[in-house]
Amino acid sequence: MFDKILIANRGEIACRVIDTCRRLGVRTVAVFSEADAGARHVAMADEAVCIGPAASALSYLDISKVVAAAVETGAQGVHPGYGFLSENPEFVAALDRAGVTFIGPSAEAIRAMGLKDAAKARMEAAGVPVVPGYHGAEQDPGRLEAEAALIGYPVLIKAVAGGGGRGMRLVTRAEDFEDALESARVEALGAFGNGDVLIEKYIEHPRHIEVQVFGDGARAVHLFERDCSLQRRHQKVIEEAPAPGMTEAVREAMGSAAVRAAEAIGYKGAGTVEFIVDGAGGLRPDGFWFMEMNTRLQVEHPVSEAITGVDLVEWQLRVASGEPLPMRQEELAISGHAMEARLYAEDVPAGFLPATGRLERLRFGPGRVDTGVREGDTISPHYDPMIAKLTCWGATRDEARAALARGLAETEVAGVVTNLGFLGRLIDHAGFRSGEVETGLIARELDGLVAPCAAPDLLALAALEALGLNEARPGEGFALWTPLGWPVLLLRGADRIEGRVSALGGGAFAVAIGGAEVQARRGAQGWVLDGRPALARAEVVGGKVHVFGAEPMVFALPDPLETAGEAAGEGAVMAPMPGVVRSIHVRKGDAVTAGDRLAVMEAMKMEHVMRAPHDGVVAELGVAAGDQLEAGALIVRIEAQP
After folding, report:
1. Residue 590 within any structural domain of the chain
2. For residue 603, what are the contacts with CB-CB under 8 A and spacing of at least 6?
3. Which residue out of 166, 296, 318, 425 is catalytically annotated?
4. What integer best gives the mean pLDDT of the chain?
5. Does residue 564 surpass a pLDDT of 50?
6. Is residue 198 a contact partner of residue 117, using CB atoms and an 8 Å limit?
7. What is the pLDDT of residue 561?
8. What is the pLDDT of residues 586-621, one digit of tens each?
9. Is residue 127 part of a domain?
C-alpha cells in the first residue's frame, strides 16, 4: 500500500478520495489553483501545493505542474479523480517517466478507448455488441450522408473524441443532415481539437445502463449495473443501482460483455462500460449495445458502493500498489437498492443556467453526502457548479426512493439558486416511481418539472416569516375589536406575489395569498396549517425568505429605503450571469426579427446564445467579442419599429 499519494483534482471527488486514504492511513497531497486556496479538499489533505491561477488550463490541466508537485512532495502515486487529466494518456506517460504510479489504467488502455470509432471497432472484435453505424476514417460529408441513409433515420452524429454530449446531434430527416453535421463538427473541434465524427442508429426508446468493472491488468470483474437514464442534455441527473426491470439473464449478458471489454484492453483499475439499451418492451439479452468506456472512476460510483459494500477507491489504491483483485466475481453480490441525486447551483427556471454565489446555508438531509464545499464557501464561475451528491440506500427500490425524497426535502441551501426542487419533483414523477425510466423523460415532462410552485400553504409560510411572525411578538392581536392585519409582498424574479395576514389572536392567523386563505396557528413543533402540521418551514437567510422542504423556494423582499434605478428598458438583452462574450452577430442599425441570434456568451464551460426578444433595429451594442461581463450587463438593445 502507498504511504503518500497526490490527488490531481478538486471538489467533492478529491474529498472523497481523502476520506478513504484517511481510513487506510495513507497521507494525501492536494493540488489547488489560486481560486481554490480556501477549498475544503485543501483543508482536508495532509499537504497542499498551489499549481497556478484559476484557469484550469494553467493549473489542474497543466501536466508538468501536477507531475512536479507529485515529485517534490514525495508522492508515490497520483489519483486523478474524474474529469481534468483523468483520461489523458500523456499525463500517465509523464508520471511513468517521473517514476510515480498512476492510480488507474495504462496509457495504452486509455488510448484504446479514447476515440469512439476505434474503440467500437475493437469492442466488436472482442464480441461486445455495438450499435449499427459508421465508424470509418473517411470524413467526406457526402460519404457521411450516404452512410446515414444506409443506417436509416433517425441517426446520431457523435464526435469521435467527444464526451458529455458535446459534438453530438440527433438528425431525424435527411434534409437536416448537412447543417447538423457542420454544427457537430464545429463544436467538437472547439471542445476536443478533433472535428471527426461517427454516425450511429438512434434508439428511439433508449435507456442508459452502464456496468462498473474493475481489472488488475489481466482479468476483470463487474460490480453490476447502474441505470443513468434520467438525463438532461446528455448530462446525468439521477443514477440508481440496480437498474429497474433488470433480469438475471440480461445482467449476466451485460456483465459478461463489460468484462470482455475490459479484458480486451488489459484494463487495470476502476472503469465503466456504458451501454445504450432498447427500453421498448422490457430489457432483453440482445437489446443492448456498447456506447463507450470511461477509463476512470465515475461521478455516480457511490450507488455501486452502496449495493455491494465495496469501497472502489480502496480497490483502486490496492490494485495500483500491486495487490491482486480483492474479490472474485462469485464473491460479489447485490444488496438492496441505491439512488444518487446531483445537487447543482443552477437556475432551473432560466434554463438550468449555472449559478454562483456564497453558500449562506448548507445543511444536508439523511444519506451519504459527497461534497467539496462547506457553508460559507463560494460557488465560483471557474469550475463545475456541483454542490454535492446525495446517495440513499433501501432494501427495495421504493424504500431507496423514499429515503432519497426525505434526504432532498431535509437539505437546506441558501445563498445560491439550486436544482433541489427539480430533483424532488423528478423522483416523485409517476414514471420514475414505477421504474419506467428512459433518456427522454425529463425533456418530455420538463414544463411540469420546472414550473414555479404556487402552493398556498408554502406561500403562507413565506408570508408569515416575511412579517417576522414565526415568533410571537407584541401587538399581534386585535385593535378596536378589529383583527390586526398586514399586507405582504413577496418577489420571485419578475413575479410579485401579494397577500394579507390577519391576526386572529392566540397565535392564530388567516393568510390570504395565492388565491386562497390559509388558517395558520403556531404549534409546539412549528406552524399548523389548515389543521395539519406544516411539512416545510420558512426562514430569512441572507436577506431573503427561504422555504425549506420538498418544494424549496426563495423570495426577495421589497426594500422601502431602496430607490429603484432606471430600468434597462424594453428590448434590452442582458447578461444572465458572469461570463465572456465569444461572438457578436449583429451591428448597430441592423434589422432583426424575434429569435435572431445576437451574441454568444460562454460561462462555466457552456455556451449561451442571446436572441432578439422581438422584431426591431439594433439601437445599442454594449459589448464586444472577448469582453468579460458581470451579470446584468447590457449586451444589445433592440428598438421596436413603429
Report:
1. yes
2. 353, 354, 381, 577, 578, 579, 580
3. 296
4. 91
5. no
6. yes
7. 31
8. 999 999 998 899 999 886 456 778 888 889 999 999
9. no
Compute and round to an integer the Cα radius of gyration of the chain.
27
Q: What is the pLDDT of residues 348-365, one digit of tens each?
A: 988 899 999 999 999 999
Cβ-contact 54, 38 below 8 angstroms: no
Same domain, 547 and 614: no
Question: In the listed set 555, 581, 614, which residue is the last one of a domain according to the structure?
Answer: 555
Closest listed residue to residue 200, CA positions, set 136, 279, 264, 138: 136
Number of domains, the chain: 5
The candidate with the shortest Cα–Cα distance to 341, out of 446, 273, 419, is 419
Does any domain span residue 365? yes
Say whether both 380 and 285 belong to one domain. yes
Q: Does residue 400 or residue 190 have the better pLDDT?
A: 400
Single pTM value for the model: 0.80
The per-residue pLDDT for 374 is: 98
Q: Is 433 helix (H, G, I), strand (E, B) or coil?
A: helix
Neighbouring CB atoms inside 10 A of 569's CB total 11
Give the cell for residue 85: 487529466
Shared domain for 210 and 331, answered yes or no, is yes
User: Is the previous residue joined to 381 through a cis bond, with omega within 30 degrees of 0?
Assistant: no
Same domain for 409 and 426, yes or no, is: yes
232 an active-site residue?
no
CATH number, domain with residue 157: 3.30.1490.20
Contacts of 622 (CB under 8 A, 6+ apart): 633, 634, 635, 636, 637
Same domain, yes or no, for 196 and 210? Answer: no
Residues 437, 502 within the same domain: no
Q: Using DSSP, state whether 482 is helix, strand or coil.
A: strand
What is the rounded CA–CA span in Å between residue 135 and residue 253? 24
Helix axes 89-98, 63-73, angle to 10 degrees: 30
Q: Find the Cα–Cα–Cα–Cα dihedral 236, 238, 241, 244, rounded to 10°.
A: -100
**Residues shown for the chain:** 642
Q: What is the mean pLDDT of the segment spanning 63-83?
A: 97
pLDDT in tens, 91-109: 999 999 999 999 999 999 9
DSSP 3-state assignment of 256?
helix
Question: In which domain, by residue range, is 488 found?
Answer: 456-555
Task: Give yes or no: residues 416 and 463 share one domain.
Answer: no
> CA 471 to CA 540: how far, in whole Å?
13
Last residue of a domain, one of 181, 201, 221: 201
Which residue shows C-alpha cell 392566540? 506
Residues whose CB is less than 8 angstroms from the CB of residue 304 and which lie 6 or more positions away in sequence, other chains included: 212, 223, 224, 226, 241, 310, 312, 338
What is the β-pairing status of strands 495-505 and 508-513? antiparallel
Positive or negative, the Cα torsion across 385, 390, 396, 402?
negative
> What is the CATH number for 51?
3.40.50.20
CA angle 119, 129, 104 (to 5 degrees): 40
Question: What span, in angstroms and rounded, lies between the C-alpha atoms of 357 and 416?
Answer: 5
Distance CA 87, CA 301 (A): 17
CB 209 within 8 A of CB 272: no
Q: Is residue 264 part of a domain?
A: yes
